[in-house]
């Protein structure tokens, strides 16, 4: 009698838990297309960009990403592909496996600026901006964080007032990805009606976006300050679909979902680098990979990458099926970024002194994740969000 039990698959160090079998062919195709784009257009150059602290050719890169279909890929209509959350997550994983700055460019464009327009904008605003942004011909940024208002956006000082039928905005925003190259900024400000979002073309008089220099993290990324001095906008510049902090926080939750996946990519890249290095580096007459302490490190890293990948996949499937609660995204962001950072630090020890060299991706991923740990919700705030959900007590109020 022939058994119906399938034969065991061949073990692969690239997929030790067989997660690929849980993906559809369409999902694998999306992942493969993004990986090929990164390998051809970014991977050979990103260490040099990081060392120089710049992202040259960002507009050409944005157009290429638009042609690839990853800008606003989980949005539907207005030139957006309308793909699933899981497909978007897989794209974020591959983008960040190359560099967090690349994933940040895509995340801010699609999950912050485009999502705000798609979810809260008027029909005119959507028609004006979304097709161009999906194609990468227009770049967007998202202005929420301020010098004195990070985790507590309700304390923002940016203010918009009515002047006749116009709005006049005075604002200072910090740590804004894409700011200096953006064509449009979604800026949040206090008004007499509560917090409102405004669609600000960056060529509007009074708007400027100076670059932030001296970064030691996310160096292959455009990071800027936004300065709005008496910026005058027409009445229809306001996002009509939302008032209050629900607007920006909903957008941030979309972006955090991408981070849940992206962190897996950074960790996977560092694990693979450490594995390759340990197999070729010979000490005391044999490869470093043959020593028990090295194997223990590799086993621990492998477990964390697999667990983070499974958590991301679960949240992607849940988001596609029923949507996610904010606390579910906090679970993913807190765990995956924290564990990815630990994986990178452990991988660095396997590489020894070479681990601090940009000839290898590990130190770049490690310092990038220090920013990812903080932005779009610090680890402390996500821990408190989970604590609030579990206990019913809001410790941060």
TrEMBL record:
Alphabetized UniProt keyword annotations: Oxidoreductase
The answer, when asked if Oxidoreductase is one of the entry's keywords, is: yes
Q: Does the keyword Oxidoreductase apply?
A: yes
EC? 1.3.8.6
Spell out the protein name for this chain.
Glutaryl-CoA dehydrogenase
Q: Which organism is it from?
A: Nocardioides zeae
- Lineage, highest ranks first: Bacteria, Bacillati, Actinomycetota, Actinomycetes, Propionibacteriales
């Amino acid at each position: 009698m022939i058994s119906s039990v399938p034969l065991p698959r061949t073990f692969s160090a690239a997929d030790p838990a067989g997660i690929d079998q849980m993906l559809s062919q369409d999902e694998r195709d999306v992942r493969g297309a993004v990986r090929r784009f990164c390998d051809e257009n970014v991977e050979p150059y990103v260490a040099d960009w990081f060392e120089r602290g710049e992202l040259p050719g960002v507009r050409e890169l944005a157009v290429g990403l638009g042609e690839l279909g990853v800008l606003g890929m989980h949005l539907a209509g207005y030139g957006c592909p309308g793909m699933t959350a899981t497909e978007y997550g897989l794209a974020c994983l591959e983008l960040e496996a190359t560099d967090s700055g690349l994933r940040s460019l895509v995340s801010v464009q699609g999950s912050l600026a485009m999502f705000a327009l798609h979810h809260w904008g008027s029909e005119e605003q959507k028609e004006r901006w979304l097709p161009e942004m999906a194609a990468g011909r227009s770049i967007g940024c998202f202005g929420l964080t301020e010098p004195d208002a990070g985790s507590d956006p309700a304390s923002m000082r940016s203010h918009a007032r009515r002047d006749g039928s116009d709005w006049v905005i005075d604002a200072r925003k910090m740590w804004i990805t894409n700011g200096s190259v953006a064509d449009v900024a979604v800026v949040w400000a206090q008004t007499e009606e509560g917090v409102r979002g405004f669609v600000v073309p960056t060529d509007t008089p009074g708007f400027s976006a100076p670059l932030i220099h001296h970064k030691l993290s996310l160096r292959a990324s455009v990071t800027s300050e936004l300065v709005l001095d008496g910026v005058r906008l027409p009445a229809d510049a306001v996002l009509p679909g939302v008032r209050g902090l629900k607007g920006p926080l909903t957008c941030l939750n979309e972006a955090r979902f991408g981070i849940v996946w992206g962190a897996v990519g950074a960790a996977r890249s560092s694990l693979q680098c450490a594995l390759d290095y340990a197999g070729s580096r010979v000490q005391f007459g044999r490869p470093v990979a043959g020593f028990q302490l090295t194997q223990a490190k590799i086993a621990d890293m492998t477990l964390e990458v697999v667990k983070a990948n499974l958590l991301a996949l679960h949240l992607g499937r849940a988001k596609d099926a029923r949507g996610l609660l904010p606390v579910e995204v906090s679970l993913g962001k807190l765990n995956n970024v924290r564990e990815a950072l630990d994986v990178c630090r452990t991988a660095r020890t396997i590489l020894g002194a070479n681990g601090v060299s940009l000839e290898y991706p590990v130190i770049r991923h490690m310092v990038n994740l220090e920013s990812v740990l903080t932005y779009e919700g610090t680890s402390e705030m996500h821990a408190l969000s989970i604590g609030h959900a579990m206990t019913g007590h809001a410790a941060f109020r």
